[in-house]
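Reading is simple: each integer encodes one residue's backbone shape. An example follows:

___
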Amino acid sequence: MTSRMHAPHTTCPGCQEEVFLDELVGGKCPLCGCALEDFDEVFGDYDGVLDRSDLSWLIFNYFVFKKFVDMGVPPHQIMEFVAAYEENADKPPAEWTKTDFVLGIPMRPWDHIKPKRCAKCQRLFFRHAKKQIIGDMRYADVHIRYLCDKC
């Protein structure tokens, strides 16, 4: 609660409600949509509002994060992937360079028992493997692959 009290905020000229600057959507009030014209004059360049204020981008990041967390991917790997993916946001889709991903996921009990084939050396093995999901953000499908301890 105390960190929120010290966050930059202002009063919206349209609805007269207190609005925190990190809640602005495209530089506009999230409640009434009124533009805050004197924002740059009063607060200068505030990074938290201008970079990630697009609501559709926030929703996209939430669902990407949720999908990968449900698969068992550790959150820090997801955040690294999203950060790399955000570098492409300003470019047209034809010029995107980093849309593929390889993320490690935990082995389930059944994965420890069944025979697996290494994706690199094609060796058949039962134990000591790494399980990964691979895919491309341009396509909906993801694949699961296993790597032996020698690869």
About this structure: The mean pLDDT is 77. The radius of gyration is 22 Å.
